[in-house]
Design a protein that fits this description.
Keywords: Repeat, TPR repeat. This protein is mostly helical and about 290 residues long. The protein is built from 13 helices and no strands. The protein is elongated and about 105 Å long.
Length: about 290
């Protein structure tokens, strides 16, 4: 790629899409090598060239989110948030407030705010995204399900488990309708619902959801796939939890019966003692 760059520079004079793409590709390679700072620099160079060549609004409407994602991945949440807000302002200006791309940007801002522990702010952005998607895409669109999922994740982090469960169930309903009951995204919904139910102590219901998740993933991905193994792990963990609770319950019942038997034996011993002269012994003690 470095060998190609001088040729691109010579023929396209710094501002062509080819040069920008070359910088961008170099950034992708550096990112795959773990050099996020170097990758970010290359994407910034690509951005500068595209800004010169294409104009600001047109660019932002079509610009891949590479630079934004890199800011996010290297922990520069403030930088990522600033870029997303800039993109949002330009997209609103060019497309209006009721456009799917605006909803996507709201969701992206929500993710960054979530990473910054601003859960109220994140939830607000996901709600704004959902409102737009419901209006322009309809209630049975997969993007609507994703926004429900996003809201559920934030609510779960806020320990609002009932609210999170409700959103996950809404996402499941949309995905089942839009994608079919055996789709991979439907399995994701079952997985999230199962985890939410587990955290609420509803182990039997949780087990059923993970079993439904497994019923989709096993034939689709095979037993050795990480997502299938993750699901199997949950099923086994819940069964172990149920077994442990059942053993504890039986132990408590046995302990109650033991105490009852012990009390009964103690009472019988007292009766025998009383019959075998205990009363006379007690009278004699009273005379002393």
């Amino acid at each position: 790629m470095k060998k190609l760059l001088p040729l691109d520079w010579k023929y396209w004079e710094k501002i062509t899409r080819v040069v920008a793409t070359t910088y961008n590709n170099m950034g992708v390679v550096l990112e795959s090598m773990g050099d996020y700072d170097g990758a970010l620099e290359k994407h910034k160079q690509a951005l500068a060239i595209r800004l010169s060549a294409l104009g600001r609004i047109i660019l932002m409407l079509h610009l891949p989110t590479t630079t934004l994602v890199l800011c996010w991945r290297i922990g520069d949440n403030e930088g990522a948030l600033s870029k997303y807000e800039e993109a949002l302002a330009l997209t609103l200006s060019a497309l209006g407030k009721d456009h799917p791309d605006v909803a996507t940007t709201y969701n992206s801002i929500g993710f960054v705010l979530y990473d910054m522990d601003d859960f109220e702010g994140a939830l607000s952005k996901h709600k704004e995204a959902l409102a737009i998607q419901l209006l322009v895409l309809g209630k049975d669109h997969p993007d609507v399900a994703q926004s429900y999922d996003n809201m559920g994740g934030v609510l779960e982090e806020m320990d609002e488990n009932e609210g999170a469960l409700s959103k996950y169930e809404e996402a499941l309903a949309v995905r089942s309708s839009a994608l079919g009951k055996d789709h991979a995204d439907v399995a994701i919904s079952y997985h999230k619902i199962g985890a939410a139910l587990f955290s609420m102590g509803h182990y039997e219901d949780s087990l059923l959801k993970f079993q439904e998740c497994l019923a989709i993933r096993e034939p689709m991905l095979g037993l050795e796939h990480p997502e299938t193994k993750k699901c199997i792990g949950w099923v086994e963990a819940i069964k172990e939890k149920q077994l442990a609770e059942e053993l504890f319950r039986l132990e408590q019942e046995l302990w109650k019966k033991f105490k009852l038997c012990f009390s009964h034996l103690q009472f019988q011993e007292e009766v025998v003692w009383w019959r075998n002269g205990g009363r006379a012994e007690q009278r004699n003690l009273g005379k002393v």
